[in-house]
Amino acid sequence: MKKHIINCLLMVAFFTLSSFKQEEINLEGNWLFEIDRQDVGVAEKWFNRKLTDHIKLPGSMAQFLKGDEITLKTKWTGSIYDSSFYFIPRLEKYRQPGNIHIPFWLTPAKHYVGAAWYQKEVNIPANWKGKRIILRLERAHIQTRVWVNDKEIGLQNSLVAPHVYDLSPYLSTGKQRITIRIDNRIKEINVGPDSHSITDHTQGNWNGIIGKIALESLSPIYIDDVQIYPDVKNRKALVKITVNNTTSESFDGKLKISAKSFNSPKSDQTKEITSNLTISKQKENTIELDLPFGKGMQIWDEFDPSLYNLEVKLVSKAVIATKKVQFGMREFKIRGSQFLINDIPVVLRGTVHNCEFPLTGYPATTVEAWEKIFKTIKSYGLNHVRFHSWCPPEAAFIAADKTGLYLQPEGPSWPNHGPKIGLGQPVDKFLYDETIRMAKEYGNYASFTMLSAGNEPAGNQVKYLNEFVDFWKAKDNRRVYTGMSVGGSWPVVPNAEYQSRGGVRGLKWDKMPETESDFSAGIAPFKVPFVAHEIGQYCVFPNFDEIKKYTGVYRAKNFEMFRQDLQDHHMGDQAKDFLNASGKLQLLCYKNEIEKILRTPGYAGFQALGLQDFPGQGTALVGVLDAFFQEKGYATAQDYIRFCNETVPLAKIPKFVYTNNETFKAEIALFHSGKIPLQNTIISWIIKNEKGNILSSGSFNPKTFENGNGQLAGNLNFVLSEIKEPSKLNLEVKVNGTAFVNDWNFWVYPEKNLENTSSVYYTTVLDDKAKEVLDKGGKVFLNAAGKVVKGKEVEMHFLPVFWNTSWFKMRPPHVTGMLIQEKSPAFAYFPTSFHSDLQWWDIQNRSQVMNLEDFPADFRPLIQPIDTWFMNRRLALVFEAKVGNGTIVVSSADIDPEVQNKPAAKQLFYSLQKYMDSDQFNPKNKLDFEVIKDVFTSPSREVFKTYTKDSPDELKPNSNQNKVK
C-alpha cells in the first residue's frame, strides 16, 4: 500500500510539474554510412561498430553519389519489353563503357539495390528520462531495421507512411548510437517491379530516408490517434480519439477539443468540448465526441477549400499532451452514377501523378513543393489527381487541402508482371496493412476523397477486390472506394463504389473526325460513377532543351541518345519544329477526347495520362508539360482551360471539312461542374475567318444550367455559299459574362475550282513515260499511294503515337504528327499551319510514308511525317525535286483530281497543281531518277527488329503469364 501511495504521489507530481511539451532532436545532417553489398552486416554486427563512410540525411544514396556505376548489367527494378536497344547496330556506341545511354527511363548518377547502413550518435538529455521516445522516419525506402547500441528494436516495411519506432525501453540519457539498416530489394513482399512506389520507371528504387527524421519525446500517456468524421448536414463532426497509457498506473483526466478555421475569409471557431477519460495501466482507450459547429461553419470544396485545425488536449491538473489536426468539413459521396461534394454533383477532371521527381529521384516532402505542383495542375482546369500505384507523403495532402483538389492515392502496388493478388502471396495482407496506415496518417485530410488498392492486377482479382472494397466501406465512410484502377480488359469488380476503368475512352477517328459522338453506350452498363482510366497517352516529340534541366540525381541520357540519333539521321536542326508540330496535334487530341467525355451525360470524370510527361516505360512523352511540370512551348494553361474547366462550351459538329455548296451546322452544348448553377445564362457564338472578320454570330435564349455534361444550349446553321476562296474558319462559343470560351476550326473549299489547263503529267507509276517527260524538261506529279516499298513498314495514322513505341515494341502508329512547310506557295490554295490539323485527316490517316534514307542530307519534304524518336527515319508524304531536266512532285497520299468524298485531298491536289504551273515552282534539291524509283522498288535498309521474346500483352491479366495457376 505504501508503495502504491508513493507511486500515486509521483504521478501527481509528474503531471503537475510538467506540461509535457513535445520536444524533439532533429536528426538531419551528417550520418555515418556503409554499403553492405554482400549482406553480411547483420551477421557481423555492424550496428556494434562505427561505420566507415559518411552521408547526409534526408536524402538518398544516389543523391550523394553512393552506389555503383551504370552498366549494361545494372539490375534495374522495372520491366523492359523492348530489349532491341541491346542489339541494334546503330546504337552500339551507346552501349560502350563511359557512354552508356539507357533509353527506357532517366539514368541515375549511381545505382544500388541492396542493404546499406546509416548510423548516428545522439545525446539524450537528462530531462527525457521517463518519457516516451520515438524515432520518426517520415519516408524510408524500403525496409528499415533499427538498433539502439547493440539492441535491435524492430523492422518495418511501409511504402506509404512514416516508419515509427518506440525507443523508450532502449534509450538511456547521454550518448546513444542509433543504427538503421535500409534494404531496397524486392523481397518477400513483392508489390510488382513496375509499381510507381518502387520502380526505376518513375521515382527510382532509391535507398535512403527523406522528410522528417527526428527523435521525439512525449508523455508516457499520449494521444495516439485522432480521426475526424464530418457531418456537414447536421453541422457537426464525430471525433474519435485514442489515448494510450504506457505507465504502471491507471489514469484519470479529461479530453478537451475545439476547432478553429485558419484559411478562409471569415473566421469560425467552435466551443470547447470536454469529456472525462479513464485509462487502465498499460492500456489504451478510444472515446468518441461530437463537435458541434455554428452557423458560421466553413465548407471545404475545390472552389472554397476552407480548413480547420482541431486542437485536442489531454489534461490532468495540467495539460500533459496536445495534438493539432488539420481537416475540412466536407462529405464526398456517391448518388447513382454521380460523385457529390457536399451534396453537389461534381465531375472529376484529373491527371495521373506517377511520382515524377527528376531532380531528387524521390517524392517531395514539403508543402511548398506540392503546392507548386497542385497549383499548376489546377491552373489547367483540373480538380483531381490520381497517384498511380503509390501514395504521396503528408505534405501532398496538406497542399491539396489548401489548393482544393480531390485525391485518389493508391495502395503502392501494380501486382502484375510477377506478383498476383488473391492467391495468398504476402502482397495480399500488405495492401490491407498499407491502406490502413494511409487512412490513419492521412484520413483527416479533406482532399483524401477516393481510394484504390493499386493498379491493373493479375490473380484472383474479383474475389480479393470485392472483399477489399467491402472492408473499407464498413470501416471508413469519409471517402469512396474502388478495387483497382484498370484498363478495359480487366474483369469488373461488382462491389466497387465507382469504376476507375479504361475501355470507354479514346477517339474513334478511323472514319472521320467529328464531335457528335459520345461515350453513352460504353458507360450504360455501369450503375456507379465511371471514371475514365488513363485517357490520352498522345505522344509528342522530345524537347531536347529539357536536357539541361537535369541537374540533380538523374540525367536524361535517353533524351541525349534520341537527340544524337536525330542528328545522325540529318535532322538535328528540325528538333524544335518536330516538338512544336507534334505538340499542336497532341493538344488537339486531348481537346477532343476531353470534350467527348464532357458531352457524355452521366460520365463521372477522367484521369488523363497525362498533363505531364512520364519519364519511364520507354520514355512516354504524353504531357503538354514536362516531368518538371513546366511548359514545353506549344501549349499554355490558357489554351488548355478552354476545353478543360469547371465550365466548358461544347459544339457537336458532324465534320470539319466542307465545300461551299453545304451548310455548316452545330449543336451547342455546355458542360458545367460549378459550385452553383449558372442562372439565366446566355451563350453566344461567332464565326470568323483567318483575318478576324466576323462572318456570322448569334446567341441563345437565357437558360439555367445545373451541374451536368452535354446540356443543350441551341443550334446554329451557317450557309457557306458566300465562301468563295479556300478558307479556314473558326467557331467560337462563350458563356456571356464569364471567362468560359471555347472554339473549333473548320475548313471550306470551293465545290468546283477553276479549270486548270495544266502542263503537268499526272501518273500513278514512275514509269518510262514519266522519265521521258522529266528528261525533256517537263513536270511530273506522281501519286504513289499504295506503291511505297521503302517505308512500307512505317504505319501512319492521323492520331499520334500511343504511349510510346518502345513499351509496345513498335506497335503502330509510328508517326506522331507532320511538319508542313506552311509558307511554301505549294499551299497557296490549301490553308494550313505547320502542323497536322483536322483538314489533314482524309489526306494523312492510314497513308503510306516514304523513307528518304538515300536522299541528300539537307533534303526537306513539303510534308514530313514525324517518326517515332526511337527510329528517327527521314520520312515524306509529299516532296518536290528537280530530276533530269524536269521537276517532280511525289505524294504517297492518295491525292488526285478525281478523288471522291475527300474534299481536302482534292483541294490539296489543286493547290499543288497551281503551284507546279506557276513560276514559283523551283525545287531546291536535284535528285537522280533512280533514287526516287528506289523508294518504290527496294525495302528500307534500316528496319526495326525486336529481340524481345516477351509480349506487351503481358500487361493484360488474361495473358499466359498472368493466368491463375
From TrEMBL:
Q: Which UniProt keywords apply?
A: Glycosidase, Hydrolase
Give me the reactions it catalyses: Hydrolysis of terminal non-reducing beta-D-galactose residues in beta-D-galactosides
Q: What is its EC number?
A: 3.2.1.23
Give the InterPro entries listed for this entry: Bact_Beta-galactosidase, Beta-gal/glucu_dom_sf, Galactose-bd-like_sf, GH, Glyco_hydro_2_N, Ig-like_fold, Ig-like_GH2
- What enzyme category does the UniProt record give? hydrolase
So which residues are the signal peptide here? none
* Span of domain Glycosyl hydrolases family 2 sugar binding: 26-215
| Glycoside hydrolase family 2 immunoglobulin-like beta-sandwich domain span | 221-330
Q: Which family does it belong to?
A: Belongs to the glycosyl hydrolase 2 family.
Protein name (record): beta-galactosidase
